[in-house]
Amino acid sequence: MSTEHIKCLIIGSGPAGFTAAIYAARAGLNPVMYTGPQPGGQLTITNDVENYPGYPEGINGPQMMQDFQKQAERFGTSVRYGMATKVFFTEDEKKVIIDETHELIADTVIIATGAAARWLGLESEARLNGSGVSACAVCDGFFYKGLDVAIVGAGDTACEEASYLSKLCNKVYMIVRREEMRASKIMQKRVLNSPNIEVIWNSMTDEILGKTEVEGVRLKNANTGELTEIKVQGFFVAIGHKPNTEIFKDILDLDENAYIITEKGSSRTNIPGVFACGDAQDHVYRQAVTAAGTGCMAALDAERYLAEIEVEA
């Protein structure tokens, strides 16, 4: 197995990773980025991005990530295709194995592995993803202004996104699997008091209807098995996200949902020299612009860390 020494290693290639790369490169840290299994992250499966500053006409997600990559490479970032498969972190050494074949010894590591939305697993859901199916109401709700939409989920996030959609859409159907929600009482109250949100209890999504775009949803009653259809133009999935942090388990401090815990107001993890940014550590906002912000923080924190150890040496 070959071994390479790197000053600043970035794992992951979404808005957080590329922003970290831009700042680290400009600071002379000679960053090396490994893109992971989905180069560009979740935005590569997003058709239209209209809420990122600097794109007044909007931009599609894949093109946006290409722009990020070009900017990072312009300042000297080495962008490589590969996946971190094992990590060994201590205060004195940061070792990362890429694709089980290449060993990296890094002075600093910036983790930007992101998170993935949990999906229902329907063929129609995958086929219509980006054509009426979305896992982010804040990202895509604007496209359904004045239209009818459905959202599936029963937790605080689902209630928050249903409330957000209710301010934009004509009608919001909230599909809840049981006869009660998991959400906090205050969030449930907000949903139940919204005149244009209709909660459909004891129901599961049997199929999302439409050939090229969402035209409706077929629901199955959990008690009787009865099938019903509702006409909607948008379908939102709000059943949670899973951070891509499995390889850091038992090495970094993670919360109960496996998000990396960072020191308040910084990107620092419990291991000196290891920093986390983007959706791998943010379960609240989960936006491209906030991910980019924390990517900037991680690069600045890494630069300061290296400066401090150089002084101590």
Structure description:
This protein is of the alpha/beta class and about 325 residues long. The chain has 2 domains: about 1-115 and about 240-310, FAD/NAD(P)-binding domain, CATH 3.50.50; about 120-235, FAD/NAD(P)-binding domain. Helices cover about 25% and strands about 25% of the residues. The protein has 7 helices and 17 strands. The protein has helices spanning about 15-25, 60-75, 125, 135-140, 155-165, 185-190, 290-310; strands spanning about 1-10, 30-35, 80, 85-90, 95-100, 100-110, 115, 135, 150, 170-175, 195-200, 205-210, 215-220, 225-230, 235, 240-245, 275. Strands 1, 2, 3, 4, 5, 6 and 17 form a 7-stranded mixed sheet that branches. A 5-stranded parallel sheet has the order 8-15-9-10-11, with helices on one face. It has a 3-stranded antiparallel sheet with strand order 12-13-14. Helix 2 links the parallel strand 2 and strand 3 (about 80). Helix 1 (about 15-25) runs parallel beside helix 2, helix 1 (about 15-25) packs parallel to helix 7 and helix 5 runs parallel beside helix 6 (about 185-190). The protein is elongated. The two termini are about 30 Å apart.
